[in-house]
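Aggregate trends can hide what the representation actually does to any particular protein. For completeness, the protein is quoted in full, as a sequence line and a line of structure tokens.
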Amino acid sequence: MLNETPRRSTIRLTRRGRVALMATGAVVAATAVAVPLAVSGGDEGRPTALVIPEGWRSGQVYDAVDKALELPAGTTKKAVPKAGLKLPGDAGGNPEGYLFPATYPLDAKSTPQTVLSYMVNTATKRFNGSQTTAGADRNAINPYQTVIIASIVEAEADNKEDMGKVARVIYNRLDHGMPLQMDSTINYALGRSTLDTSTKDTKVDNPYNTYARMGLPPSPIGNPGDQALKAAVSPTQGDWLYFVTVKPGDTRFTADYDEQQRNVAEFNKNQGKAKTDG
């Protein structure tokens, strides 16, 4: 089946850079890795700091703040509209992408509003620098779109070293009028984290479905860190249109569709061997 040659539009770029062939029905499945809430406790056992990992979505951040401040579930999310967050106009009041990954101090006076404001203000300082603005101008996009791209890079790259190349694939596909076809955006639309994306999933009617819709999704799909932002601002030079992680630490980028098929075949072979060995 993998020897068949599907049309270019049937190549699916999946989360973490892995690729499956929709035309053959070969879907890659994996278990999402859960990231635990990271807090530092004081002498009385109460958290004194909250660590937000790179790539967390806003919902995960809200849940973490609720737990750290010992509040009922959903409290932080409900506080967003009245938190007075200083977001860019393009965000439309949605803080996704601007809850910057970092370690935030907590004290007895901390509230959802103060914690979220701290995160957004930190992101604004990082994202509004001259480097980001210059990068946006150079890449013919605005700063908010740069954050959107950074969030996809954060979700798709197998490792930090490949982030610049993943960003370049995104720009190249946009320049070529190709859909991004990133499973990470579908996962965001469906509120999940998985590598198991079905053909039915790729047809879902949702603005974050980058199979059915051209261009970037309407907002970031997570909260990117410094490395992902740097990649989005200054992507590695190259003509790549495809990438696939053949095995951990071995992500291959190419502009040649036939080469991509060979890489995908090797990946599927490795997956089959891993299942047999297991």
Summary: The mean pLDDT is 83. The first strand starts at residue 11 and ends at 13.
